[in-house]
Amino acid sequence: MDKDATQGAAGTRDGAPAPGGGAAAGDAWRWARAEDLKPPTELHTETAHPARMYDYYLGGKDNFEADRRAAEAAIAAYPALPLLARTNRAFLGRAVEYAAGLGIRQFLDIGTGIPAVGSTTEVARRVAPDARVVYVDNDPIVATHARALLAGHRDGHTTVLQADLRDPGAILADPGLKQAIDLGEPVALMLVAVLHFVRDEEGVDEIVATLRDALAPGSALILSHGSPDFAPRSSADEGVRVYSRASAPLVLRERSRVESLLGDFTPVEPGLVQLPLWRPGPEGPPEGWQAVSAYAGVALKV
């Protein structure tokens, strides 16, 4: 099984400026050292990768020719893709702020993707300076970037693990996770724009159930997921075709199917909704939001 297959395009959603962010949002990324950002040797640049395609949608520079070609093909099929990427990263910020506001101080972000301004760490610590974050991704370039960004950061408060979402047991058993997070206390489990890169036959339901079951009462599940529900069928089909040639498939799921991934967790208002409509703030959703074909929600374990 290709270890790149389920890297979360989610990842690059961390490129968002934190909601209401000012100088602090940019300061965090001065941790990086140029020598730490060299691509790992196992990086396959000849095959498009969802995380790097997502980086391209957001105007980033951590992508290669194969990623750009595939991303342009996807945009041609579904022009709202860049808007979806921006609204997804904005959702991440709002959801993390919400969880931190509940008193949650531990964040498990799986499918982190290529990090940039507006990370889970930045947003959580703006509300709670003592927040602990564990980033998990199976792509070596993500681990390289994230560890570079952590250079000189407060020791023990942010951890980066290279692991695969499709093996949740290994993630939960990882010594690094156990050192960083106490699963006996509430955790915000973040599965942001990653599960649509896991096929049903790979056990997506069992994967999410294993992770949910490991969480203590008071924990939160932060979820976003691509869907065919708000896009023309031809666009959805072409998007699936484009990603079939990348290092991960694209599995768009209808609302009822996405909702089932919440299990017995209780959704908070406004429930599982079209991505831009999850607590958009006083300014409301962005122009053209109706074309964003994805769902988002936050649910609590009571």
What does this structure look like?
Helix 6 (140-149) links the parallel strand 2 (132-137) and strand 3 (158-162). This protein is 35% helix and 13% strand. The longest helix has 21 residues, at 81-101. The chain has helices at residues 23-27, 50-57, 65-77, 81-101, 120-127, 140-149, 168-173, 175-180, 204-213, 233-244, 255-260, and strands at 106-110, 132-137, 158-162, 188-192, 220-226, 266-267, 273-274, 294-300. The protein has one domain (9-300): Rossmann fold. It contains eleven helices and eight strands. It has 302 residues and is an alpha/beta fold. Residues 1-41 have low confidence and may be disordered. The protein is globular and about 45 Å long. Helix 2 crosses helix 3 and helix 4 (81-101) runs parallel beside helix 5. Strands 1, 2, 3, 4, 5, 6, 7 and 8 form an eight-stranded mixed sheet that branches.
Kindly report the name of the CATH homologous superfamily: Vaccinia Virus protein VP39
> Could you say which overall geometry the principal axes of the C-alpha atoms support?
globular
From the alpha-carbon coordinates, what is the Rg to the nearest angstrom? 17 Å
User: How would a textbook summarize the main sheet?
Assistant: 8 strands, mixed
- What is the SS-derived class? alpha/beta
Low-confidence stretches: 1-41
Per CATH, the class reads Alpha Beta
